Amino acid sequence: MRQDLLMGIDVGSTSVRSAVYDIKGRLLSIASCGTEKTMDENGFSETALLQAVISNCNEALEKVEGDFHLYGIAVACIGCGTMLVNKNGKLVHTKGDYHSIAKKFYEQTDSHDVFNITGYVPNEGTIAFRLAAHTGEEIETVLSYADYVAFRLTGEKRREYSTACSMGTWDNHNGRWWDKLFDFTGVDRAKFGTVENSGTLVGTVLPEIVARSRIPQGTLVFTGGHDYLTSAFAAGCDSDKTILTSPVHLKSWHLSTISPGSARRITPTPFDLSLIIMSYRANSASKQKATVQGKPSG
Description:
Layout: E1 3-11, E2 15-22, E3 27-34, E4 39-40, E5 43-44, H1 46-62, E6 68-77, E7 83-85, H2 99-107, H3 111-118, H4 127-133, E8 141-143, H5 145-154, E9 159-160, H6 161-164, E10 170-171, E11 176-177, H7 179-185, E12 195-196, E13 201-204, H8 207-212, E14 220-226, H9 227-234, E15 242-248, E16 251-257, H10 270-285, E17 291-294
Parallel strand pairs: 1-6, 6-14, 9-12
Antiparallel strand pairs: 1-2, 2-3, 4-5, 7-8, 10-11, 13-14, 15-16, 15-17
Helix pairs in contact: 9-10
């Protein structure tokens, strides 16, 4: 009997993974490699990263027994990072002194306002400053690591909501790119694109990817999400008024969360969400099971 399967790809800080699940969410296989194998002196290598993703997908699918139908793939990633793409889809690395631009901005912007609006403390390396100072090849699109992998698999560009919130450029209160930052730097918001919810269809896997892999022709690729959110969901935080309680060493974090369908109404800041992933991952590392308890939020 043919199995209906789902695949998840995770671009992490220590490893790049591919995992196969059945439609009930049961893990069937997983493959991974060290993130360092996907990088060069400038960061992620477009060639090495794609090859690692394809190799992991092949290995994970080879472990699946019997006939299967791969319904779809979604890609998740760490936050705070970007892949800058030119009009031909090639990676571009920024050049120019962005520190002076950042310094002027922060001289007239209270650090508490920065944190309150974006969920991040002031950072001179924020992508808007680097783009404002860039003097090299024209950059057409700013993508997260996950959005970039989805682009390489399908040829289509999408900007997923939760990873957009992780770059220090998103106004969490108004649900748009931060006007003050973009007006000050003069960076074109169009480079960042229109954000879309996790689970949005990106496209189908390209024929050249099919030819290099065990991924079946016609497989759909969807936007995934920031690892904070996806790990919280995996830990069971999938409804309103849910608390993730996870003791780690001598500390314990208690986080109120909201259902995925509520994300547009109330979006926890990336800082709040980071506590979820920190506690969840630490528990996983110590091979302890995270406990999820219902508790009123507030």
